[in-house]
Amino acid sequence: MIDATHDQSAHCWVPGAADHREFPVQNLPFGLFSAGSDTPRPGTAIGDFILDLAGLAPLLGTHAAQAAAVLQPGAPLNGLLALPPQARRELRHALFALLTDDAHRDAVTPFLHPPAECRLHLPVSVRDYTDFYAGIHHARAVGALLRPENPLLPNYQYIPVGYHGRASSVRVSGHPLVRPQGQILPPGETKPVVGPSRRLDYEVELGFWIGGGSTLGTPIPIGSAGEHIAGVSLLNDWSARDLQAWEYVPLGPFLAKNFLTTVSPWIITAEALAPFRTAQPARASDDPAPLPYLLDERDQQSGAYDIGIEVALQTAQMAQAGDAPTPLGRTVATHLYWTPAQIVAHHTVNGCDLAAGDLLGSGTISTPDDDGRGSLMELSRGGRQAVTLANGETRTFLEDGDEVVMTGWAERDGYRRIGFGTCAGRVIGNPNG
Amino acid sequence: MIDATHDQSAHCWVPGAADHREFPVQNLPFGLFSAGSDTPRPGTAIGDFILDLAGLAPLLGTHAAQAAAVLQPGAPLNGLLALPPQARRELRHALFALLTDDAHRDAVTPFLHPPAECRLHLPVSVRDYTDFYAGIHHARAVGALLRPENPLLPNYQYIPVGYHGRASSVRVSGHPLVRPQGQILPPGETKPVVGPSRRLDYEVELGFWIGGGSTLGTPIPIGSAGEHIAGVSLLNDWSARDLQAWEYVPLGPFLAKNFLTTVSPWIITAEALAPFRTAQPARASDDPAPLPYLLDERDQQSGAYDIGIEVALQTAQMAQAGDAPTPLGRTVATHLYWTPAQIVAHHTVNGCDLAAGDLLGSGTISTPDDDGRGSLMELSRGGRQAVTLANGETRTFLEDGDEVVMTGWAERDGYRRIGFGTCAGRVIGNPNG
């Protein structure tokens, strides 16, 4: 790919950008921030700063006119996501040019804000949120807790299994998680009780942001499905396992999931991630071939994302002692059985329409071993085996005061490392129990 | 209840209103219409006309100032739903006063439009859509097809079972249904094929529109949950049974449902329906009592809606011959096992937030006998027993060209009949097969 914004030797004049481990000029993610008490406005993270894109819009000139027109204070990034991909690429190129040419330093500098003086907001008004289940090692591990002989259900290797989540309760990193209450069936009982969840868990996922949408009644073919993904964030699909076990038959998870979904604040663009696309992991020889509507040669060769994710836990005791979070797992998105393009093609094969601002969760991304389990449910073997943390505390599920911190990155020899920022949330006790 | 808008002897001067079977002045539903090529605008149905509420807003004066401010052309009714219930009641009272006093005839008449010159639109930009499963006779009948010995699952009489649906594919009555395609497991096979659904069905439901929302982390108590329902429409939860059977384990229905959900155009307000509230049907002596968060004396006594619904089918052959649709069932919403207030209290018990413009489907409302089955799945015993229509045609599931027409009403001695209008949609063939 010949693209100026992938020039790895380009020098960015913004302080801290030259050797930044998350936000070099090759990243240029999109987000929504406010400085002080200002209205939230579109921004990008560059080096040690946040750049106000609404303020900068007049400087973008004719090279990114479509994007400049939607970079307004007060509005979430749905307008930017609704533009054709080419318009977002023009914006990226215009920003890259401004930030790598010293001649623009004086004009651009007034729009740089120190992150410490800013607040990050949910970047998009989430339209519909769909959560998939494409992490096969998670599906196997969770299935094995219920059906040791036959962990994967018969449809798993044919269907990118997914379900509708709750859009209203998606929040940006940092939003506290009020421990949910609900109906729980105590072990050995036949009548449920109502109380705070005692099996509260995280799930390590990616969130794919839909750019251009589609029309009701018209499927998106696999060959163009990837173009509908505008960018990627980290996603924590918080789950209450005890609520889920009692409620989920026959219509799936509901209150076990819809009390909060956390995303990282920056949308890492498809363009920034282009160098980190890779082949789908090889299927086992007895795995079925994808059905034709899910099969595309280019997607098989380069449809997966080589994105690393680490999840860590900081208990209240650690926070008080000033201890760093204990890493609980490190995984990589190539463990997903289905690519984002396959997920999009499946979601629309029946004519379901997608829209700019839709969020698609990948499903929990686990490694096949204990190095990178994407949930405590897996690590603790369904709560039967406690996990020991760095300070000697143990956990089967989350306790009040625990903070779950996810970080993500893409790296590859010869390329600048691209960071995702943080997706974090701390559990606070339920006021009713 | 002493409320001027329930004066059954009030005379409305609008032509056709005095003896209208759907839209007397005691109804005054809210909808979105356009006359000719105008921008869609809020309206109400009164007698033989649609009244332009945006045009009328300046005449509403100080009695309904909050509502008048949001009755703008171009916007869906989310703003009206977001107002406190009292503001919608003031609007209702102001309209009732204008329409029952001859002195206002000349001023109001210019804002009346003949429906034949108007188009009705989806009244609300649907935020989140949740579909419940509260029709116990439907749950029993469908459960019996799979588990004759034990049709109801253990959680059914404790939990108002529900799942998240797709908000983007909700459409107003009249929108055509493109027969969805998807993965289908042929009987006796282990590998799925892809093709158009052959087991396409309707589901007779009510849709409850959420007015005032709630805050993430804060449950809505059962005692005030009913106040969050601003109004009710008819809802057809179109379903592809063959897609559903293969995809729904373990995360619930997805592509089997999200290709289209149809609602009737008018929101029949909670105020118009107040005289038709009634007690929940008596539980059987061995039914469990609702858990405390679902139990409220007033809700038990008057939380259910006495709303009748008829579903009818007009095939292409009938339409060509000019034959009326064949009625397939007539049911009543008191067959719902849970009240709307119980559904709202359950939805939020874990802290999930609701917002103005959310849509809650009731679940399929069937009678315990064949007079009012809410789906073909039930009528045809899972497709094993064809239904004979008035012209001799037979159906197990829907065929191309079939139109499903739902109508609804509330009636009671001493009260004017309130109509819901129509919720209809015709199946068109899948272009791929």
From TrEMBL, chains A, B:
This is fumarylacetoacetase. Substrate binds at residues 133, 147, 244, 248, 364. SUPFAM superfamilies: FAH, Fumarylacetoacetate hydrolase, FAH, N-terminal domain. InterPro entries: Fumarylacetoacetase, Fumarylacetoacetase-like_C, Fumarylacetoacetase_C_sf, Fumarylacetoacetase_N, Fumarylacetoacetase_N_sf. GO terms for biological process: homogentisate catabolic process; L-phenylalanine catabolic process; L-tyrosine catabolic process. Residues 130-427 form the Fumarylacetoacetase-like C-terminal domain. Pathway: Amino-acid degradation; L-phenylalanine degradation; acetoacetate and fumarate from L-phenylalanine: step 6/6. Its cofactor is Ca(2+); Mg(2+). Pfam families: FAA_hydrolase, FAA_hydrolase_N. PANTHER family: FUMARYLACETOACETASE (PTHR43069:SF2). Residues 26-123 form the Fumarylacetoacetase N-terminal domain. Ca(2+) binds at residues 131, 203, 205, 237. The lineage of its organism: Bacteria, Pseudomonadati, Pseudomonadota, Alphaproteobacteria, Sphingomonadales. The keyword Metal-binding applies.
